[in-house]
Amino acid sequence: MLLAVLTDLHANREAVEACLAHAEERNADQFAFLGDLIGYGADPAWVVDTVMAYVNRGAYVLMGNHDLGVLHDDRKDMNPNARLVVEWTRQQLTPQQKDFIRDLPMQFELEQCLFVHANAWAPERWEYVDGAMEAARSMRATNAQITFCGHVHTPSLYHMNQAGKVAEFSPVSDLSVPLSKLRRWLVQPGSVGQPRDGNPAACYALFDTQQLELTFFRVPYDTEAAAQKVLAAGLPASLAQRLMHGG
C-alpha cells in the first residue's frame, strides 16, 4: 500500500489541495492525517469537511492539540496567536464538524507502524520531538519499528541502530529512502499548512508499506492566496507572513 502521510494541515485550503492532488497523481492508495487539521489558517470548515470525506473512503485521522483546543474554552497552554485563532475557529465550525473532531483518537497502529501527533511516550501531553534525545525517547516508548508524528513543522527522519544510538537524516524532496528493518525509525513529514524551515512549500510524505520506502515531498502552492485569506479573516498578520516565508 502506498500511504500518503499529512500532518499539521492548519486550515490551509490551498496547501491541502496541492498536497492531496500531488498524492493522487502519484497513485496513493490511502491517506493518514496526523492531526492539527485546524488552527492558524482561514479555511477550517473546508479542511475538516475534506478530511471527513477522506475518512469515508477509509483514511486514518488523529487528534492534534489545535483540534482539541477548539473543543475547550480554556487553552492557556497555547501561545496568544494560537489561542486567538482557536477561538475564531470555534465559531466557524458546525456541531457536526466539532463532533467529528471530538471523536478523533490520539494514536493508531498500522502493520509495523505507530502514528501519533506529537510523540509516542505521552501523546496527550503534546511534547515535541525536536532533537535526537526526544526521538530516542519516543522510539523507546513503543514496539513499533516506524513511528510517524507531526507537531514539529519541519521534515525530519531519525533512526536508531541495534545498539540504541540515534542519528538524524535530513530528507531530500523526491528522493526515496529505504527504511531498513535492522533499525528503528521516527518520521516527521513536516507541515502541510504552515512549514517553518524557511521553505514555504507544503510538506508531506509517501510511504510504501510493502517495500518500506519513504519519500518526502515539498509541494509549492499559492501562498499569497492563503495569506490574503488570513488577513481578510482578521487573523494575526504574523501568521500570513509565516506562510509567505516558511517560518
TrEMBL record:
Please report the stretch or stretches of sequence annotated as the Calcineurin-like phosphoesterase domain.
1-211
Single GO cellular component annotation? cytoplasm
Segment forming the signal sequence: none
Name the Gene3D superfamilies on file: 3.60.21.10
Protein name per the record: Metallophosphoesterase family protein
One GO MF term on file is:
phosphatase activity
Q: Which family, according to the similarity comment?
A: Belongs to the metallophosphoesterase superfamily. YfcE family.
Q: Pfam families, per this entry? A: Metallophos_2
